[in-house]
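Backbone geometry tokens:
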Amino acid sequence: MRGHLALPSNDPARVSMAIVGAGPRGTGVLNRIGANATEILNGRPLTVHFVDPFPPGPGRVWRKAQSPLLRMNSRAYDVTMHGMASANAPVADFSLLEWVEAVRKGQLNADVDAALLPELDVTDPGHFATRRLQSAYLTWYFNETLNNVPRGVDVHIHAASAVDVTGGTDGPQTVWLDSGYGPLVVDAVVLTLGHLEAGPAPHERDLLDFAARHDLTYLPPGYTADLDFSGFGPGETVLVRGFGLAATDLMVLLTEERGGVFSEEGDRLVYRPSGAEPKLYVGSRRGVPHLPKPGYRLQGKPAILPRFFGPGEVSRLAAAAKPLDFRADVWPLVAKEIGWGYYHELFTGHPERVRMGFAEFAHHYAVSGTGDELSELEARAVPAVADRLDLAVADRPLGSLRFTGAAEFTDHLQEHLHEILRRRTDTAFSAELGAVNAVRSAGHMLARLVATGRMAAGSQIHDIDGWWSGFSNYFTSGPPPSRVSELIALSRAGVVSFLGPGMWVRTDERRRQFLAGGESHPTVVVASCLVEARLPVPDLTRTASPLLRALHARGEVTEETLGDGAAPTGRVLTTPTHRIVGRTGIPHPRRFALGPYTSARTPSLFVRPVGVAFGENATMAREILRTLSGVKSP
């Protein structure tokens, strides 16, 4: 159903709620509302208002209206909107791969654009789907959720943005829309807003001012598919700060999207420029792209995770008398967990490359400490140094290497890219997938530990929100392997060059240009364009969301602060049951929020094997329904 003006129902028993944000997260919450409404509301009728200017299901990030060249960074086999089996699940449990197979066989009534049919034909378990195909899957999932909500649950879709929510703590909430339609009057509100745009930070304002004074182009952090690259002309020198997924998308949109062509020539991928490309100089703190997603499955028996960093360890750490330091108290357990995932696969999937049986190794590994004791065990059990896990090298693969100039550094980095591509595509290195799975499991447990509030403020901000977040994204959430092959080809074609690790950017008032370089070689690049290739960090004080700005101005949402309020994190403060906390410190009984902008710090959204978000969706849906069940009839 589509609705414009929604006023209180004439049915005195009916309750209502609004979900603001209709992407995968909001859709997942709606699904869980449908799965639990009959049980918790005991047949009481419910109206759900779904509010988003973008299409329900895909939302903004996964909408159909974007370049067909942009892809997911997860295999079709691992992408799902079903995190757990449920007797009340109102939608068939299809992963993206299973959905594609069912559509191919004509078993599903799915509206798939004709332009996607060739991709449907070639999708296999290892396929990295286009975002347009994912959009079709999410659209189907939303429609199935909508069509299967229980009797008595009505859903109204509003193609609008919510700009404010008003109302007391003990009565109806009014959701104000930007569309000119009347407000929505509901009993509860949940905000599933996803990644949010933000105004520029102070140093970004300085760069914007410099660019404006000298007729240059500077793009602050933002969602790459929505950035305006028209200021990057053919052959123009562009500095790209960041080497993660945003940079990958940027390179696609500024090369192949502009008419360049990749082709296979022998055993090499070659890029033929169109002439419309700018010249890109890319760098970051680490100086290398995120590791590509493994293009294989485990070859041995899957490890049961968690093993060394699970709920028991979280409980023990949370009971500590003093605030926890990540490096001293938590990282040894996390590192051992990652090593367990790695070596479990090495020993069970490639027994010919080890010197002892897995049972013997597992016993010694369990009782070994860290440092030299563990290194000695690895040396005894794994003869090839290349088969041993070194997390320090994995984190900073270029280390302290120095080169005479850009050309020598480029040669080295191309060799490095070939090596990481080999390790992420050849099943001989499937132990890396074991480590990837263990990093995801550890991220789940870290989220639980952070929720206990026992981490020291500085360690949480710098070590977990900072280093760990960057490392886990780099290690587990990289692009498809094909993107690394394309990056090598772009480098050989002279379209992309590398600044290396420790990238720095300065402004030169005399030259009226940006300057940039890195730690690995002395080359300094002079450029007229600079783009920050990353999403904005959560920052309630700079958010571009008019809804959060309005709530924040009245003190009805507040920023999470750590260390007795001395360390703000920028995130919206919520309780463990995802209720919004205002300036008074009292959770609002009728307002909820969930997503990366909140203090919940949820890991991956719809990627197996962890899928923490699915459990959160279910927990919050049941909490909202329990709240609604207690709303008295007028």
User: Anything to note?
Assistant: DSSP finds 17 helices and 23 strands in the chain. The radius of gyration is 25 Å.
